[in-house]
Hints:
binds NADPH dihydro-nicotinamide-adenine-dinucleotide phosphate, Dihydrodipicolinate Reductase, domain 2, DapB_N, 38% helix, alpha/beta, EC 1.17.1.8, 9 helices, 4-hydroxy-tetrahydrodipicolinate reductase, amino-acid biosynthesis, five-stranded mixed beta sheet
Amino acid sequence: xxxxxxxxxxxxxxxxxxxxxxxxxxxxxxxxxxxxxxxxxxxxxxxxxxxxxxxxxxxxxxxxxxxxxxxxxxxxxxxxxxxxxxxxxxxxxxxxxxxxxxxxxxxxxxxxxxxxxxxxxxxxxxxxxxxxxxxxxxxxxxxxxxxxxxxxxxxxxxxxxxxxxxxxxxxxxxxxxxxxxxxxxxxxxxxxxxxxxxxxxxxxxxxxxxxxxxxxxxxxxxxxxxxxxxxxxxxxxxxxxxxxxxxx
Length: 248
Ligand SMILES: NC(=O)C1=CN([C@@H]2O[C@H](COP(=O)(O)OP(=O)(O)OC[C@H]3O[C@@H](n4cnc5c(N)ncnc54)[C@H](OP(=O)(O)O)[C@@H]3O)[C@@H](O)[C@H]2O)C=CC1
Ligand SMILES: O=C(O)C1=N[C@H](C(=O)O)C[C@H](O)C1
């Protein structure tokens, strides 16, 4: 496997996990500055040509080139990069017509179970106000986090609406019926916390997840890498990777 973003907070941990796994060979990585001594290149095409799975934990502005390179090389792509815009989303969809693409805003299997719970509760609590709060370290570039957006998608799907039609990040207004509110906090070195609450006049239900150690994501990423190797083309998620581990 190769890692786009190998010098980053998550990429370096993924590299550690890969080096200590007996069933995975780490072929190299991608960053903005090459380091031949550590097999770090700046051309995603070179990285993709040498591996059967490319793990992308880089930055939104690298995703199109990484997806294109994986598609040309015919290797599987596992991507956990967040903060994507329409062009990057389209690049992943395009690639998934040719290669297997696993896309996961959050590599924690447990967090992905929370998405199922969110969808189930949202459908059964249609009149409750849904609010999502996420907290991350001060270096995080995107808000709301990719996971918060995935939680929002789960709530919207459970209610049979489009997230784009009901999402609200601007709280300088009275709350509209049915909106899904998002709030983002940035502080210190917090690894990642997500909370979803459903509230009406009488009660509140809250689902929450707290990541204590970023290694959680690295381990989940490697589960996805193992699963993606040799798959048929398509767009997959962590729910496919964990498969039978999840109830219907
Ligand atoms: N799905 C999940 O479970 C998780 C996802 N993430 C996501 O992963 C991504 C990375 O997070 P994190 O490790 O904290 O970020 P960092 O900023 O620590 O790392 C980013 C990495 O990407 C590389 N990079 C950035 N821009 C480019 C570019 N244009 N071309 C090539 N390489 C590039 C950097 O290399 P250099 O700076 O050396 O050039 C670095 O190796 C984020 O989108 C984050 O939200 C994070 C945690 C969990
Ligand atoms: O940038 C991070 O650190 C994280 N990003 C992901 C996100 O945007 O949801 C996942 C995790 O919460 C950590």
